[in-house]
Amino acid sequence: MRKILFALLLVLFLVGQAAWAQNEPLRIIAVFAHPDDADSRMSGTAIQWAKMGHQVKFVSITNGDAGHHETGGARLAQRRRAESEEAARRYGIAEYITLDNHDAELVPSLDVRKQVIREIRKWKADVVVGLRPNDYHPDHRYAGVLVMDAAYMVVVPNSVSDVPALERNPVFLYMRDRFTRPYPFQPDIAVIIDSVFDQKIHGMMAHESQYFEWLPWVARRLDEVPKDPDERREWFVNWRGRPNITPEIRKSLEKWYGAEKAGKAVHAEAVSYT
Predict the structure, then answer these.
(1) CA distance linking residue 40 with residue 53, whole number of Å
(2) What is the pTM of this model?
(3) Residue 182: is the preceding peptide bond cis (ω within 30°)?
């Protein structure tokens, strides 16, 4: 079943449309640590999935209530939830939710694992996309662990029995990162996102508290952020939207798209099987 789904995903990416896609859309869920985590890593792929008729849901395990230098708590969590909902609208995906776990305090507890299992089951997921458990941020690491720990349990009826178990195990994929220990990310599937790059940037910019306040402040670049909307977008693209195709990703693109099309690609996203 996994090999079939992998093949279908690749066909849909490369062909762009299929009668199968219209008749039986995939149900895809991305589970990560913070509102905005998945946006930079896979929102271009999510946009393309949605355009093909697939149902895509983003789930942030924490509510993001610590990710700011001036505000926090419930007020920040509410703001970030609204930003996430606006990002979903701009991406054209079905849903973007934040669970009520505190930012900067995530641990791979049984309680939170059950929350992840419930979300995957409720969505009746065919594909689950998560973070690898290799990161400088403990929330990112533990979000990866939680998805991995849920991977088998989603089909076990006597675990989290208040939500029906899935009949078959979904395909589990992992988002790109730059960490090399204990082993580097491997771009098993790479996707050209040039056709939806502007839409991706527009969606990411919905997370104003992060991309124009908190993250520039952490990077000591807050004074560089323009006030003018057009200048702000150009600044953001130069900072967060630069071409990101590594030699390894280019090689993966060549495998699936052919050398000519891969050679012309400027922006791409990638996922791994492990």
Answers:
(1) 22
(2) 0.92
(3) yes
